[in-house]
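Case study.
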Amino acid sequence: MTSAVAQQLWCVATLLGTTVLAIATSRSRRSTAIVYGATLAISLIALSRCLPVLVAGGNATELVLPVGLPWLGAHFRLDALAAFFLAVVNLGGAAASLYGLGYGSHETAPHRVLPFFPAFLAGMNLVVLADDAFTFLLCWEFMSLASWALVMAHHREADNARAGYVYLVMASFGTLALLLAFGLLSGAGGGYGFATMRAAQHSPSEAGLVLALMLLGAGSKAGLAPLHVWLPLAHPAAPSHVSALMSGVMTKVAIYGFIRVVFDLLGPPNWSSAVVVLVLGSATAVLGILSALMEKDLKRLLAYSTIENIGVIFASLGLALAFQANGLGLAAALAFTAALFHILNHSFFKSLLFFGAGAVLSSTGQRNIETLGGLIHRMPLTSFAFLVGCVAISALPPFNGFASEWLVFQAILQSPDLPQWGLKVMVPAVGASLALAAALAAACFVKAFGITFLGRARSPVAEAAGEVDRCSLAAMFALAVLCFLAGILPGLVIDVLSPVAQALLGHRMPVQASDPWLSIVPIEESRSSYNGLLVFVFITATASLAVYFIHRFASHAIRRGPAWGCGFTDPTPAAQYSGVSFVQPIRRVFGTLVFQAREHVEMPPPGDLRPARLKVEMHDPVWEGLYAPVSGAVWFLADRLNQLQFLTIRRYLSLVFATLVTLLLVLAIWS
Amino acid sequence: MPNLAFDIAHLLAGSLVLVSFMMLYQDRLYALLNVFALHAVVLACSVAWQAYIQNAPHLYVTAVIALVFKAVIIPVALHRIIKQLGIHRDIETAVGIGLTMLAGMGLVALSMVLMLRVTGTADPLAREDLAFALSVVLLGLLVMVTRRNAVSQVVGFMSLENGLVLAATGAKGMPLVVEISVAFSILIAFIVIGVFLFRIRERFDTVDVGALDEFRGERR
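After joint prediction, the assembly is written out as follows.
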């Protein structure tokens, strides 16, 4: 019987073999079915092998392969944390593969997608399994490059090349930060194994620097503001099932890196570091969801919403750091479990929503929601699944999004126990901004669902749309069922996640399975409890009753009134409520401050028959405030240095000579 | 006797630097080649003396290589090239002689200050040798930088290499294989450069490297 980690590595090896197979059969018509079938099977096997490790807890298993650096080898380790993230990765991988079985047949260039898809899955699995800095960075880069290749799959489409370029630059920057962080962690001794880093003592200044570098490195991959700019460009550019993987899973792998280093390797945290994480997390959440609200492109909207959820997760992790630094183990376990729960939930509903967006895209060829509408009549099943995803991500009961966000807020309510006044004041403010983000998220998904699926079709393609194939629907409904189950049975999920918190923080949430009627009690019965099943039963019962009463009594009664135009007072679909008009109030309230949104009315002069136009002008504060100056400086320097390309031979010689003499002079003066 | 050995080694290495200085102010090509041949002869003497005092017979081979290749074959070949190219009457005026000499003195001072301080714990003979060798290298680079004619740049490069050989022999225990391979690589470099000289000449009707820059449309 091989150990659990060896089984996972065999799965990864099979995935890499599938890559080779995909290259070999890329011209064949059946290769789509073969590759996605293989990845589906492998992901399910890997999932079934890592779940026992997570549920049973048990000891970490390790394995050293004789590859990589000669004196180090490649270390792999499977503990509770890795098992949880492996479950997230492989669940997302299985869902995306199932969806790909149907969606992949619409692919115009399958040979650009198929080889990289299993490689991408393998990369994410390897990052989670790695147990030394070298292997971790190598696998991290492998994952980045595989996903970059997938982003560039449709490289001839407008903006995709730019998206790939920005992604590559940000990924390199992030890896550089990670490299420095691991360099600091390994110290002068150069112990690159995670075990030696865990055992080593780190001074407070060093720990602070490592935390900052991890926020840069893992944060840029996860989409933490202000390093998120690549994410809304790159995630939508990939094929939809890959977008789902990137948004739902790869950002979680980045969070895994953050958790592994900050909670596991770095030793006991400092409360001031928690402040940074809290501020960044809540700012990311609000900025992400505001950007999502302003967006017209369905996939970009989803990508921005990912940024919001990452912000929520980071804020929750910051809370865990704050509680842990003050020895409040139970509250730290609560915040940490909430973060893990939200990671799991987000991978469910974000994958589901991206699948829905992909279904709309493959059926209509449109990503712009202003050209859609009325799809609920043409794609009833897709729209139902999408609705489930929207309700879940808007944190409405009885779905899973509510359960995890409720836990986050329960953790925030523990903040009066914190001794530092700075945290006491700040955590409620963070809670307020997370509440704002949650409310805006609900508005955002009302817009996304309402404009896309309700109303009347705004374009001929939306009119002619049809339902998608069975595999895609199966993937969406599987995720919808998971969203529902995790929502009404949160206690089971919390109990499964508890060993992870126990291993990293030394504390765990109380066992929920013993509570009556499947309710969850984060701290104690007298303070708060939630029962998803009861809420579901209540919602179902009251809704059924209301429907029954309306149909039984109100619909049959005779009423007299003015003739009703069925809501269609204007004959053209263009006169419907649009996405832009839906968010106008929010844009006026928040956008004026955050995006410097300005509205101009262009009124034609009298006698001119053109219509008046309302133009909205918006600025991306992060891009214009941070990235544009940096890129401008780089261009300026590059322009200056460009002249070095065209010197005479003697000038080059003189340059070399002058450099040599200068270095010698420095040496002469210095030593 | 040890003192005498040290003094003679010192004298020979110092004369190498002196000959390097002589190279700096030669503005005619034939004269420059003659000085270069002298440079190689002094180098050969210095290496032979090192072979004697270190009791290392393989250094005699190095000395012979220096004498045969650098003092005879290369200068003679360059003579022929200059005659074939018909540039033996050319006079170079890249940078003023006074300025070049001043820069050369500065470089020698720099290498002395640096080397004597850095190699504080080394054998005094090796220290002096290294300081002189660095001076010769820097002066060779200065020749390359201040000259405009491709032939004199080649000569500068070769004298730079002489400095390297001086440093190598001063430090004890340099294997013969390394020296022979260095000598051959220099020879190959010389052949390649010679071929290039003719190609440049064929195309541009001059070996003034300034013509290359003009061809590329650059201002000097």
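Observations recorded in class. Chain A touches chain B at residues 646-650, 653-654, 656-657, 660-661, 664-665, 667-668, 671 (CB under 8 Å). The beta strands of chain A are 61-65, 74-78, 598-602, 613-617. We will return to this complex in the next lecture.
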